[in-house]
Specification:
With about 425 residues, the chain is an alpha/beta fold. The protein has helices at about 5-20, 40-55, 75-80, 95, 160-170, 195-210, 230-240, 285, 330-345, 400-420, and strands at about 35-40, 60-65, 70, 90, 100-105, 105-110, 115-120, 125-130, 135, 140-145, 145-150, 180-185, 215-220, 245, 250-255, 260-265, 265-270, 270-275, 280, 300, 305-310, 315, 355-365, 370-380, 385-390, 395. The strands form 8 sheets. A 5-stranded parallel sheet has the order 5-2-1-9-22, covered by helices on one side. A hairpin with a 4-residue loop joins strand 15 (about 250-255) and strand 16. Helix 1 (about 5-20) packs parallel to helix 9 (about 330-345), helix 2 runs parallel beside helix 9 (about 330-345) and helix 2 (about 40-55) packs across helix 10. The radius of gyration is 21 Å and the shape is globular.
Length: about 425
């Protein structure tokens, strides 16, 4: 990272990370407010932690259906077998034991804005949790394509875990000279550089272990959506003999068991198909009638607080919100701190910070031992009421390197600790 971009990024990242060390909330409140958090990914874990860290006696209950979280960050290295699923396994122990977050394992079924309750299904039955403030960070859900789509046959592996291992095994066991096909969904989707990163590391793996294989990348977007120089160079040089990259490809339907994609550039047949469907907000937001943007896929929020435009007491952070910021774990972590600060100011009778900023970085492996990076900072613009990209902060690595690859793990581990530690 050059000095100018690193300085701009760190300046704003510091603002986003600290938000406000003293938000004005009194820990001696006679009746502690109740905050319910739905979702235990980077957004939900971070906001739960920082509400307790900054808010003292505030009651925070995090609802999550899974006993632990598998990070999508670093998960492409699992797809290629460079390390195992344990590398991205994140526990909730510190949130519970160190920070006093009440963790409830269960599935949030529906939000009731009028009564300010959430219906949750647990192992022992259904319960209703009342809240003064609700934070929803459910990640993304997927829009099933037309045709005979079976996720187990053509795994997306866009939520780390079982599907990640499924895709790894399919690539590892692909026949000699077989074809690996990846479909990239139309933006916005989770982790803008992620599909191109996966295309690179899978091409690298196949070059080493199945050199007669072929990689076909079908991108519904008109261009590479993140790190265009880095990925463009990799496609045109490192992987030119094995990888075909196509833009603006529309998939009409899929037959997962047969390994067939019918597209506007013809029928594509793959031995292994990594089909990443189009994205939408988490299912509970659709079921609760909170999805309200023009595409009917995301929730409109006020980026000063991340409160829903329709229901300000309900805050949506991470992948499901519609502010135009990238959908990533690092960005969810940043939004969580802005949200936590705004909620604590609210309980303290103060106005929220009127100039919030968020920052996101990403390291992208290109080969088995080299990587590039991307940085972006967003600042609230009062004139438009939107988060705007800070131009000097937006940059990608001038070249891929082994040093970047090593820094990738340090960056990820720091983020893991900040969110879950």
């Amino acid at each position: 990272m050059n000095k100018t971009n690193r300085r701009v990024f760190l300046k704003h990242a510091g603002v986003a990370a600290l938000a406000s060390a003293i938000p004005g909330f009194s820990t001696a409140a006679p009746s502690a407010p109740r905050v319910v958090v739905i979702g235990g990914g980077f957004g939900g874990a971070t906001v739960s932690k920082y509400l307790r860290l900054w808010g003292g006696d505030i009651n925070v209950t995090m609802v999550e259906s899974q006993p632990l979280h598998y990070s999508c960050i670093l998960s492409n290295g699992i797809v290629t077998g460079d390390y195992g699923l344990d590398r991205v396994r994140l526990q909730y122990d510190a949130l519970k034991d160190r920070h006093g977050v009440e963790w409830l394992q269960g599935k949030a079924l529906k939000i009731h804005p009028d009564s300010q309750e959430v219906t949750v299904r647990t192992a022992t039955g259904r319960v209703k949790l009342p809240y003064d403030k609700l934070i929803v960070s459910p990640g993304v859900d997927f829009i099933s394509p037309q045709g005979n789509y079976k996720a187990g046959k053509t795994p997306h592996a866009w939520k780390a875990g079982e599907q990640t291992i499924n895709l790894r095994n399919k690539i590892k066991n692909m026949r000699d000279g077989g074809t690996f096909v990846m479909r990239i969904p139309k933006a916005p989707y989770r982790c803008p550089p992620g599909p191109y990163e996966r295309a690179c590391v899978c091409a690298d793996f196949l070059q080493r272990h199945n050199p007669n294989a072929k990689v076909i990348v079908l991108d519904e977007n008109p261009k590479i959506m993140a790190e265009p120089v880095t990925f463009g160079n990799a496609f045109e040089t490192l992987y030119s003999d094995i990888l075909e990259y196509h833009t603006n490809v529309q998939v009409a339907d899929i037959d997962s068991p047969a390994g067939i994609l019918n597209t506007d550039i013809g029928q594509i047949v793959g031995d292994v198909i990594n089909f990443i469907p189009d994205h939408k907000a988490g299912k509970i937001l659709h079921k609760s009638g909170l999805v309200d943007d023009a595409t009917n896929r995301w929730v409109q929020v006020d980026p000063i607080t991340y409160g829903s435009v329709a229901h300000p007491e309900i805050h949506i952070i991470g992948d499901s919100q519609a502010t135009g910021q990238p959908k990533s774990g690092h960005m969810a972590n940043a939004q969580a701190k802005v949200c936590a600060d705004a909620i604590l100011r609210y309980f303290g009778g103060e106005q929220p910070n009127q100039q919030p900023s968020t920052a996101s970085a990403c390291f992208s492996p290109i080969t088995q031992d080299t990587a590039g990076w991307l940085t972006a900072v967003f600042q609230y613009d009062a004139g438009t009421g939107q988060m705007k990209l800070v131009p000097d902060s937006f940059a990608e690595a001038e070249e891929v390197s082994k040093d970047n690859y090593e820094e990738m793990f340090a960056w990820a581990d720091n983020l893991f600790a900040d969110s879950f530690g």
